[in-house]
Amino acid sequence: MDPASLLSAVLIGVIEGLTEFLPISSTAHIRLAEFATGFRDQGETFAVVIQLGAILAVCAYFWRRLWTLTTTLGSDPASRRFVLGLAVAALPAGVLGLTLNAWLEKHVFGAWELGIIAATAAVGGLLILAIERWRPAPRHADAATLPLATCLGIGCLQILAMVPGVSRSGASILGAMCLGVERKAATEFSFFLAIPIMLGASGLKLVRHHEAVHGEFAGLIAVGFAVSFLVALGVVHWLLRYVATHDFRLFAWYRLVLGLVLAGLLAAGLIPLAVG
To answer: Nearest-5° angle of CA 28, CA 30, CA 34?
Structure first.
C-alpha cells in the first residue's frame, strides 16, 4: 500500500469522524483534503463508505437504546412511534436520493464544486446565526416523541444537504430547532436519523461503483472506515455534552471564515473550482 495514499486515507478518516456530526459539512472538508493531498476517490466511493464508520460510532454509543428499540418494537408503542418518526423523516431524502443521485454525480460533484462549497459554507454560517437569534421557543424536548409532521419537516429540510457544502447534521439539527425542537433533542434525532440515511447512501454508492472496491483501494477504505469510527465516537460524546450548555454560533463563525477563505483562494486562482 502506497504510504502517501495510506496517510491520505488516515487524514480523510479523521476529517470524516470530526465533521460528520458537526454543522460544518463533512463533504466539504473531505473534498478540500482530497485536493490538498491529491487523493483520488473513485466514484466518490471512499468518502461515502467511510461514513459507515461514523454511523457505526453512533450505533456503538447508543447501543443500549438501539437494542431496546429492536427488542421492544413489537410490544412497545413508544418504540414503534420513534421508529415511525425516523422513517417519516428519512423518506424525503431516500426518495430524492434514489432519483437525483446519478444526476448530481454528473452535473454537481466535480463540476464547480468548490465554488458551491465556498458559497454554501458562508451562507450556512449566516443562517445559523439567524436561527440562533430568531428561532422559535422549543416545544418538543424528547427526540422519541416528535410529531410526525415535525419529523417530515426535518426530513424535507435535510434534502438541502444534497447540495455540496450543506451539512446533513446541520440541516437536520438546525431545521428541527426551527420547528420547535429543543437543541439536545434535535441533536439526538439527527444522530438516529443518520443511521438509515447514510446506510442507504453508502449502499447505493457501493452498488453503483462496486468495481472500484478491490485491491489496494479496498484496503484504503478499510483504514478510513476504522479511523472514522474511532474519531466519530469521541465527537458524538462531546457534541451531546456541548449542546447541553452551548449554542451553534461557534460553528457559524467557522463556516463564514471557511467560505471567505475558500472564495479568496478560488478568486486568486490558487485552487480550481472542481476537484478531480
So the answer is: 120
